[in-house]
Amino acid sequence: MWEFNQDIWEKKYKFGDESCPEDTFKRVAKAIARSSEEEQEFFNVLIEGRFLPGGRILAYAGTGLPCGTWMNCYTTGDPEDSMESILDCLSEGTITLKAGGGIGLNFSKLRPKGSPVRKTNSKSSGPVSFMEMWNAMSKTISGVNDRKGAMIGVLDVSHPDILEFIKAKQNNSATTPVLEKFNLSVGILDEFMKAVIEDKDWTCRFQIEEREVIEKQYRAKEIMDEIVSSAWAKAEPGVVFLDTANHFYNLSYTGEKITATNPCGEITMPPYGACNLGSINLVAHIKNPFSEHAEINYDLLAETIRTAVKFLDIVIDLSPYPTEKYRATALDTRRIGLGFFGLGSALALLGIKYGSDEAKAKTEEIAKFIRDNAYRASIERTKERVPFPLYSKEFLDSPFVTNLPNDIQMDIAKHGIRNSQLLAIAPTGSISQLAGNVSSGIEPIFNVEYARLNYGEETCIEDYAWKIYKKMYPETTLENKPEFFITAHDLSWKEHIDMQAICQQYIDGAISKTINLPRDISKEELKDVFIYAWQKGLKGCTVYREGSIDGEILRKENKKQKTRPRPYQLASFTYKVKVPEQKHAFYLTFSHTKENKPIELFINTNDPTVQEWVRSLGRLVSAVFRNVEDPIFLIEEFKQIFAPSGFWSGMRQKYIPSLVAEFGEIMEDYFTEIGILQNKKLIATHSKHAYEYCKVCGQYALVYEEGCVKCLNCGLNKCE
């Protein structure tokens, strides 16, 4: 059984009374399988961490939620240049987001801003203004289980409003959001890229009616410079190379045209396409890591691929769809998006430096193996079933298919093929964390240790391969780690693109990958990034310059200070505090690692009037524990707090100046208990107290004097 991340599982994939990931995998395997043998086959690849389906499948399959789609995302219909079509597409988007799917669409059919609308004797507000309708809708709609669907908006580089589109999110920030629910991407054409390189003019053209055309003239470089400036400042827009995507599209012979991508860019699709995603965990197929005999278990990988293709093909028939148009397109094309993740971690386990010539050769070997075996598995499925309904012999003329090995092409010609598209590299951010924090998609290791924001909470992450290496070689530190633990920010942008380009040769869909760039990269060099990506045959390009996004999801750790990660299991001590004249007690639970390093403090009480500050104090102390090597200073800081809550402590036989000061005393007890402090004599939990117990204030402060019962703490006085 693979070691899964319990926190991610519980936050994203747990359903009902499921108690562990194993329960979730049983639910999913049973929902997909058509026989007990298939159920066991699917469960095995899941529980062994070899294959993980897309998050929507893990979250919804087998739950009985009728509206929860199993597809991660869709491309909706592109709105035509009429209010009726705009509202129809907006409605489609609403229904899709409600079902839990993200959406992508192209707004290029909408007339430019300021152009005449003769039926109403008015002027158009342009595509960017209509995008605000989708944005407002997305802010309002919550999907199944309160999931928020992502959106990507595309505008072709030939549209007259392209500059407004490029600049649309320049003022977007956490405090002043602008189209914040959208990712933006410019639809790039080959002729435009040639015009940029040759410094030629570029005409943006839109035909309103048969004899009326709106044109704007630009230098191609002017438009590219605006793309670069916005991407440099805000990491948007990205670009999708539409001509490249359509050239390698397996269904071009049907007349379908790719106009957009799904929100993360791993599948370029025509309208009403669906993302049926699943990814192979490369790390789970590595034998003998960090040794001379480290290798990929290709026999096991081939078995995983066959099972994964079967699994995703069945999902097509079982998934609920937001609309019948999506269902019909999915059944006609039987498109799946099988990818892989953990490439960065897997290369490290093999002792190979990401981006090196050896890494490029190994990556090509892996990608080619997965492509060939996925296509073979789909052909085998055809022998059991039938080819996808839109299949014809013209499928064999697709440039991607013509690059397949001859035996595969011959088998397709003889038997057909079950799925029109088979491969896509998704970002796998959540499932790579679920799988024990392996690297995402084909990305390098982001950082061997880093902080990640999950649902607003900062989580400390150690890469899977790095964690294993440290167990094998305990003397290893960040300063002396091997060079094969190269991270995303240590790579040049050309190394990023070269690795993506190698994979793209063997992927019939697309690849979601971010080109990480240093903070000080010039805009001129950033322009070279986009040009090089197009020249290398990528279908899209997304860049991130360090520091260009508010609230980054991933952040490198400060080299001067490391946040101590929280292990899955912790030991703890709980202490009870009862303050005089207060009804409710306080319970302080301190937790620590096996090495007796304090990690967190939870303060619990039933008193509703103090919940806010006790939780805040607990979180603050926990943050200190995780980030400060020696937290002993907290004891005296707490003890120096004087407040009306001060009381006489019979247990400690002294006056405690406040409730928080007692917390400091307890912290001192705890630190002594786990060996951080040596000086203090611990209070024996069951020892006889010097004074009797006072039922009024809850303290051991009762004395018998002068024939009376007196409390030294609360002043109770009863004479016999």
Report the CATH topology name of the largest domain: Anaerobic Ribonucleotide-triphosphate Reductase Large Chain
* Number of extended strands: 31
The CATH first-level class of the largest domain comes to: Alpha Beta
Q: State the end-to-end CA separation.
A: 69 Å
Number of structural domains? 4
Can you give the mean pLDDT?
A: 90
- Estimate percent helicity: 25-40%
Measured by DSSP, the beta-strand proportion falls in: 15-25%
Low-confidence stretches: 684-690
Structural class: alpha+beta
Number of helices, where a helix is a run of at least 4 consecutive DSSP H or I residues = 23
- The largest sheet has its strands arranged as 13-2-3-6-7-10-21-20
CATH architecture of the largest domain: Alpha-Beta Barrel
**Biggest pleated sheet:** 8 strands, mixed
| Shape estimate | globular
Radius of gyration, Cα only, in angstroms?
A: 31 Å
Descriptive labels:
720 residues, alpha+beta, Anaerobic Ribonucleotide-triphosphate Reductase Large Chain, Enolase-like, domain 1, 8-stranded mixed beta sheet, 4-stranded antiparallel beta sheet, 23 helices, 31 strands
